[in-house]
Design goal:
The protein is mostly helical. The protein contains four helices and no strands. Helix 1 runs antiparallel to helix 2, helix 1 runs antiparallel to helix 4 and helix 2 packs antiparallel against helix 3. The model has no long low-confidence stretch (mean pLDDT 91).
Amino acid sequence: MPDPSGDPIAVALTVVGGFCCALLLGGMVMFAGIFARTAFAHLPRPTAAAFMRAAFASYYLTMAVIAGLAAAGLAWARPIDSVVLVAVLAGFVAARQWLMPAAHRLEAEREAGLPGAAERFGTIHGRSVLLNFVQVLAVAIVLGRLLVGGAA
C-alpha cells in the first residue's frame, strides 16, 4: 500500500474518501434505522409504503454516488478499501435496478391479494435487508480501518 503521508494530494483524497465514507455510513444508518421506522410508525401503512417507495429510488442513487466518491478518494492510497466501496456501490445499483422494482411489483401483488405474493415479497425484502446489512458492515469496517490508521 502506498504511503500517502508524503503526498499532499494523496492525503487530501484520503480525507475526502474518509469523509464520504462517514457520510455514507451515517446516511445508511439514518435511513434504515430511523427514517423508514418512523414513516411506518407514524403514517398510515398505505401512505408510509407509498412514501418509502418514492424515497428508495433517491436513496439508492444518492448512496451509490457517495460510495463512488468514497471509493475514488481512497483508490490510490487505500486500494483494498476502495474495492470494498466499489462493491458497496454495486450493491446499491443492484438494489435500485433489480431488487427495488421486484419489491414494488410484489408489494402491489400482495396488496391485490394474489396467492403467494406475500411470501415472495417477504423473500425479496429479506434479501434487501441482508444486502443493506452487509453494506453497512463493509462501510463500517472501511471507516474503522481509516480511523485506526489502516491496519493491513
